Amino acid sequence: MENEAQHPATFSLFLGRVFLNDLFGIGFLRSADVLAYAVLYTLLLRLGAGPVMSALLALIFTEFVLVLSGILTKKALVGSRWGSNHKTPFWSWRHFMYFFAQDCFFAWCRIPLRVLAGTVLSNTILRRMGCRIGKRTILASPMQAFDWNAVNFGDDCYISGLLQFHTLENMTLKVKETRIRNGCTVNSGVTLMGGAVMENATTLLPLCMVLKEMHLPTGTYWGSPAEPYAGNQDLSCCDIALDAGLKSKCSPEILKGEKRPCITCHDSR
């Protein structure tokens, strides 16, 4: 594999990359929703639905068609298995098709996933894309789960961070599955890389970074790279925000250290 990665690109492969990721990816994908809406609106008008009803139905059906197209594109170009623990040379059809499928996902699924962000409803689309997501798990930014076959999240999790499950190393694309067990929390500003494992009820504090293939036993972690949090276990979210360098919504007295926020941040003591 490493020897293959050093081989120069063939002219046909280079042209394929330009067509998929530059011309088609940038030019057509962003206008697909307009074309789909125009076709559906015209079709509904001819069926006698009326201008207003045709416009409303065309909006709904357009998003459905685009999401379905993204799912079918991913299944056709990537498959249901590749991308859980695989690698491929930079100059390869597998690499360019993988990124092209991601371009389709970003262009065609962005509106529904933004609307459904922060709810379990977004998991329905992500599961169809190949993500393994447990019950009652919430992703604050569902568009982050773009390495679909590498996503393996348990039940009752909250994920709000940067998910980076693929890397480019030595001219090789590598994708590794990341496992988040039941009851875990990934806070805002966290970077979670491929191959990592978080055991049950593990919490990552804001701005934490989990490097590739790190194994985190049950506990609370912060820092870059992530390490066990050695502070008071009774800290509130305001304390955590201040320790991480983030803005806090606490009162000026608390920020000056005159009062310490309680565990619920609704009172001071």
Overall description:
The chain is of the alpha/beta class and 269 residues long. The protein contains 9 helices and 15 strands. The protein has helices at residues 2-5, 11-28, 32-46, 51-77, 93-108, 110-115, 122-129, 237-243, 252-255; strands at 85-89, 132-133, 138-139, 151-153, 158-164, 166-169, 172-176, 178-180, 185-193, 197-198, 203-204, 209-210, 215-216, 220-222, 227-228. Strand 6 (166-169) and strand 7 form a beta hairpin. The chain is flat, with a radius of gyration of 22 Å. The N and C termini lie far apart (60 Å). 32% of the residues are buried.
Shape: flat
Largest sheet: 7 strands, mixed
Tell me the CATH architecture of the largest domain. Answer: 3 Solenoid
Distance between the termini: 60 Å
Under CATH at level 1, the class of the largest domain stands as Mainly Beta
Cα-atom Rg, whole angstroms? 22 Å
Proportion of beta-strand residues: 15-25%
CATH superfamily of the largest domain: Hexapeptide repeat proteins
Level of helix content? 25-40%
- In the CATH hierarchy, the third-tier topology of the largest domain is known as UDP N-Acetylglucosamine Acyltransferase, domain 1
Low-pLDDT segments, ≥5 res: 232-269
String of helices and strands: HHHHEHHHEEEEEEEEEEEEEEHH
How many separate domains make up the residues? 2
Question: What is the topology?
Answer:
Elements: H1 2-5, H2 11-28, H3 32-46, H4 51-77, E1 85-89, H5 93-108, H6 110-115, H7 122-129, E2 132-133, E3 138-139, E4 151-153, E5 158-164, E6 166-169, E7 172-176, E8 178-180, E9 185-193, E10 197-198, E11 203-204, E12 209-210, E13 215-216, E14 220-222, E15 227-228, H8 237-243, H9 252-255
Helix pairs in contact: 2-5, 3-4, 4-5
